[in-house]
Amino acid sequence: MPPEHGQAAWILADATTGHIESTHNAQLLLKPASTQKLVTTLAGALALGPDWRYKTQVRYRGKLQNSKLVGDLLIDFVGDPSLTREQLRDLLKRAGVRQVSGNVLLNQIRFGGYDRGNGWSWNDLSVCYTSPVSALILDRNCVQGALYARPDQPARATVPAHQPVKVSAKVEVLSRAEQKRRFCELEVEMSPPNQYRLTGCIGPRQDPWPLRFAIQDVDAWGEQLTRWALGQAGVRVSGGILDSRIEANDWPALAHHSSPPLRELSRQILEHSDNLYADSLLRTLGAEHFQQPGSFRNGTQAVRDILKEEAGIDLGPSWLADGSGLSSHNLLRAEDLLAVLLVMAQDPRANWLMDVLPVSGESGTLRYRRSVLGPALKGKVMAKTGTIAHVQNLVGFIDTDDGQRKAFVLLQNGLSISPQHEKNIAAGQGEWPARRFERRWLESVVAQEPIVKTNQSATN
C-alpha cells in the first residue's frame, strides 16, 4: 500500500508501443522535484541536439596591434555551467592580448531577470545546489570550506586563502541531545559582497564538517576571479574590470572556449541531478527560442513550446517554474512525464538521453538508492530520482524478468511520519514507508505481477 496520509500517482506503459498497463491518479498535479529535469533535457535534445555546446568568447573594441589593445576587451559569458577559472585563464592566453589600455568588460547579456527560480526556499539559498544561474558562471558559483568542531573548543570555519569570500563562525559545539533540547541547529547569515556568518550549534566531530557556499554577489565574484585569470594569463589592464550587458556580436572575436557537448552536460543533469546545469539549459532554451535574454519565465515557456511543436506533448494545466525541479511551485501530472519518456524511447532525436540516466546499483543517484539495490532490481532500473521535502519520486525505465522494457512514473507527495516512527527507523527498526512502497512497486513490475491496489480507483 502507498504511505498513509500522502498522495501517490503512477502510470506504467510498454516503452516500445506506449500501451498503458497500469494507471492511478495519472492526471493529478503533483510536485515533480528533480524528475522535472527529464522535461528540460528532452526540450534541449529536440531544440539543440546532442552536439550543441556553450561558447564563451573574448572580443575587443578598438585598435589591436601585436598584443597591445587600445580599447576594451570583452568576455562574453553565456551561462556555461562547466566553465572554471583555469579555463578562463587559458582562454585569455589564447586571445593573445597582453596589454589593455581600456576596460575589461564581463558581458552577461545572454541572461536577464532573476538568477534564481520562483519558489526556491529562502533557507536553501546559501548552499551550492541553489547557486545563482547567471550568465557568468565560474567554478559553479560555489565555494567549498570546512567547519572544525572539536569537543570543548569553539567551532572554527575556514575557506581556502585564494577564494574571494569571507566566512566567520560563532557556533557552539554541543552533543546531539543538547542540540535537540535547545532546538539549536547550524544557521548561516549572508551579506555582500559574498560574506557568510555561521551561527547556532553543531555536533562534535574529529574530521571537519564540509561546507559549500553558494555565491551571492555574482558581479563581485566574476570581477575577482577574472582579475586572477588576467594576472595568470599575463594580461595588464589600465582600466577596470566592469560588469556589462551590451550586444557585442559585431565586436571581432579573438578566441573562444567550448563546453562539453549537450550529451555530456545532460549526463551531469540526469545522472547526477545537477540543478545548475539544468537551470542554465532552461534559460538558454529561452534565449534561443525567443531570441532575447534567457530567463526562468521565457525558458519555461520555451520548454512548453518545444515539447508541443517537436513532440506533440501538451503540458496543459501543468506548471513549470524552473528547469531543475527545485521550486515548490512546479506541478506535473504522471501522464506528462510518461509522454516525455515515450519520446525518449521512440524518437531517434532523443534516444541518447536513455544512455545518460542513472542505473540502479551502478551509477548516479541510483547507485546507492536503497529501494533499488536488491538482486531483483539491481541493474534493471534506469530512472531519474526526484526528492525535495516530503516528496519521493522515480521516473524512467525498467526491464522485466522476461526482457520487456517498461516506461514508468511513480510519484509520492505529502510524505511524513510520526516522530516516534522516525526514531524507530533511525534505530534500525523498520523502513521508510515511501521507500518500501517504491521497492515493492518496482519488484511487482519486474516480476510481471499485478500492481499494488489501493482503496482508491486503479486499473491494471
Question: What do these coordinates show?
Answer:
By secondary structure, the chain is α/β, with parallel strands linked by helices. The chain has 3 domains: 231 residues, Beta-lactamase, CATH 3.40.710; 96 residues, 3-Layer(bba) Sandwich (D-tyrosyl-trna(Tyr) Deacylase, Chain: A), CATH 3.50.80; 93 residues, no CATH class. The chain has 10 helices and 18 strands. Strand 3 and strand 4 form a beta hairpin. It starts with 6 loop residues before the first strand and ends in a 14-residue tail after the last helix.
> Can you tell me the CATH topology of the largest domain?
Beta-lactamase
Contiguous runs where pLDDT drops below 50 for at least 5 residues: 454-460
CATH architecture field of the largest domain: 3-Layer(aba) Sandwich
The CATH class of the largest domain is identified as Alpha Beta
Terminal Cα span: 15 Å
Number of strands: 18
The description of the largest β-sheet is:
7 strands, mixed
Number of helices: 10
Radius of gyration (Å): 24 Å
**How much helix is in the residues?**
25-40%
Q: Supply the number of structural domains.
A: 3
Strand content: 15-25%
Structural class: alpha/beta
Backbone shape? globular
Order of helices and strands: EEHEEHEEEEEHEEEHEEEHHHHEEEHH
Question: CATH superfamily of the largest domain, please?
Answer: DD-peptidase/beta-lactamase superfamily
Mean pLDDT: 95
Keywords: Carboxypeptidase, Hydrolase, Protease
GO biological process, one term: proteolysis
InterPro entries: Beta-lactam/transpept-like, Peptidase_S13
GO molecular function: serine-type carboxypeptidase activity
